[in-house]
Amino acid sequence: MRIKKVINNNILCVVDDKGSEMIVTGKGLGFKRKIGERVDPALFEKTYRMEGKEEQRKLRELVAQIPMEHLKLTQDLIESIKGQLKAPLNESLLITLADHISFAIKRKAEGIEFTNPLEGAIMSYYPAEYHLGQHCLRVIQEETRADLNPSEAAFIAMHIVNAELNTSMSVMYDITKLIEGALEVTEYFYQKTFDRESLDFNRFVVHLRYFAQRLFQAAPRQADKYEADFQEMIIRSCGKHYKCARHIGEYIRNAYHKEVSDDELIYLTIHLKRINLNSK
Do residues 199 and 205 touch, judged by C-beta distance below 8 A? Predict the structure, then answer.
């Protein structure tokens, strides 16, 4: 391995013979080292690799700013998270989550705590990720003795969902707000409150998650377009649910200035019928 940058006495940025860049750590690894010098991989205690050039740059900057134990802790947490989720996670999660956790620990030491205004929505719409966030808080307390605000579980969950959907944090907030608004429209239309613990509700929220992602990222749904006869059949046989879907489309048009396609309205109608079948 050849040294690209000496970050500090214990951290180096190195490249292999193929030009792949990585961050490596080890006690005294960077002491009196110079750029271009060769270093034995047997001395590495931990290795952090990013595929994207932008992520490589961000990782170099991050390791120079946060304690190394916070990066190691985050990597261990992500390995645990990966074992409990089916969806692949964007590699940038290591950077964003390590940065957040390190800053949260620092803020806690300074007596500064934040609450998440979307915590209730996150608990309801992303239950698996929220529970993982709670698990992370317990591990952080065990490893660092930092008793972070319980609201941090929601922030961690947002980072996880963001990595699942492969989008930006600002879009992630928009997606969550859209889900919240769409559910308010739905419950007002049917004049009922849906069971947040039910499987049907969970399925509907998952549909809204990916629907909102497609909407904000201008990505079409990967499916065959519905035939006109099928659309007419759904509209005729599920008129009430189609009307609700149209109301949701109107809400999105007014709030986000985005149009919902006919295909999406039909797909939404099918999910609205499903969530109403077993609800009381």
Answer: no
Rounded Cα distance, 270 and 43, in Å: 58
Backbone angles phi, psi at 127, to 5 degrees: -60, -40
Residue 236 is part of which domain span? 191-196+207-277
d(CA 138, CA 276): 37
Q: Which backbone phi and psi does 170 adopt, to 5 degrees?
A: -65, -40
53-91: pLDDT as tens digits? 888 889 988 988 999 999 999 999 999 999 999 889 999
Q: Is residue 180 part of a domain?
A: no
> What does the radius of gyration of the chain's CA atoms come to, in whole angstroms?
23
- 186 within a domain of the structure (yes/no): no
DSSP β-bridge partners for residue 25 = 11, 46
Q: What is the CATH number of the domain that holds 44?
A: 2.30.24.10
Number of domains the chain contains: 3
With CA atoms as reference, report the closest residue to 128 among 93, 157, 108.
157
**pLDDT higher than threshold 90 for residue 199:** no
How confident is the prediction for the chain on average, in pLDDT? 89
Q: Is residue 175 in some structural domain?
A: no
Q: Containing H/E element for 22?
A: strand 21-25
Q: 82 and 159 share a domain? A: yes
- For the cut 90, the answer to whether the pLDDT of residue 278 exceeds it is no
Of 156, 104, 101, the closest CA to residue 132 belongs to 156
Strand 2-8's sheet: what is its strand order? 2-8, 11-15, 21-25, 46-49
Residue 143's pLDDT is: 95
Q: Which residues are paired to 8 by β-bridges?
A: 11
Would you mind telling me the total number of residues written for the chain in this entry?
280
CATH code for position 110: 1.10.1790.10
